[in-house]
Amino acid sequence: MVTVRAPATSANLGSGFDVFGVALSRPADVVRVTKASETTIEVSGAGSDFIPEDPDKNTVGAVAEALDAPAHIEIDKGIRPASGLGSSAASAAAAAVGLNELYDRGYSREELVPIAAEGEAVVSGEAHDDNVAPAIMGGFTIATGDGVRKVDAEIPLVACLPEIVVSTRDARRVVPDGTSVSNLVETVGNAATLTTGMHRDDPELVGAGMHDSVVTPARAKLIDGYDRVRAAAFDAGATGVTISGAGPAVIAACPEQAQRAVGTAMLDAFENAGTQARVYQTKIGRGARIR
C-alpha cells in the first residue's frame, strides 16, 4: 500500500486564468492505493456523500486507467468538493503519484500532470493543468501547453470558504467569450506583476497582480457577498483578493502578521451577508508527498 497526501490548491489567482496555480499548506486529501485486479474506490471525509465511487465517474478511476494500474483506492477527503480549492485535483494528483510509485511506472512529477488532468476532466468536463500542476509539484506553477514552470514561493495566504456550492461547469459558463485590448493589456501587466512577486516572495506585488477585470467580475455574481468580503479583507490588511479557482472560496494574499485579521474580517463579512463560512490561514506549500 502507498499513502499520499495531496494539498488543496488555488487556481487562476485573478490574472492567470487557466494558467496560474498554487499549492496550499492546508487543507489536503489523503489517498491510499493498494494493488488489485480491478479498480474499486472508497470515499470518506468532507462531502463524501456526494462523490461517486464508480471508477468511471471518479477522477481517480480515470487516473488508474491512464496508468494501467488497477487498485483499491481509499480517498479521505479533507477538501470539500465544489469549493474552488482543487478538491478533485487533489484526489487525482494523489492517485497519480501513489499509483506511479505502487506500480513503479517511472513517470516524473511533470509527466504526471497531464495524466492527473485527464482525471480532473471527469468532474469539470475539460482537462486543465492549473490545479493538478501545483497539487503534484507544489509551489506556484505556470501551466501552459508546452509544460509547467514552477517557483518555490513563500507567500502567506488566507482562504475563506463559504457554505455555497459553485460547480466548475457553472463557473465556466459565465466566462466571457472575449474582451477588449485594454483589458488584455491590463491582465498581462497584472500577471507579470504577480509572477515577479512570486520570484521575490513579495506579498505586495503578488496582491497587486491578482486584480482581474474580465473573468472574476463575471464569476463574482455567483458568490453572495463577494464584494463585501473582498472589501473587508483589504480593510484588514490584504494586499490582493480574488476568487479561488471556480469559487466559491475567496483567496487573499497578505503579510503574515495580517493573516488572522484578514481571516476574521472575511468570515464576518460572509456572516453579515447571511452565509456561514470557514477560514484557512495557509501559505504556498509543498505538492503531493508519499507518507
Structural account:
The chain is of the alpha+beta class. It has two domains: 2-151, Ribosomal Protein S5, domain 2; 156-283, GHMP kinase, C-terminal domain (Alpha-Beta Plaits). Helices cover 38% and strands 25% of the residues. It has helices at residues 59-66, 87-102, 109-124, 129-137, 168-173, 181-200, 203-208, 215-220, 226-235, 259-272, and strands at 2-11, 20-35, 40-45, 71-77, 140-144, 147-151, 156-162, 240-243, 250-253, 277-283, 289-290. Strands 1, 2, 3, 4, 5, 6 and 11 form a seven-stranded mixed β-sheet that branches. Strand 8 (240-243) and strand 9 (250-253) form a beta hairpin. Helix 1 (59-66) packs across helix 3 (109-124) and helix 9 packs antiparallel against helix 10 (259-272). The chain starts with a strand and ends with a strand.
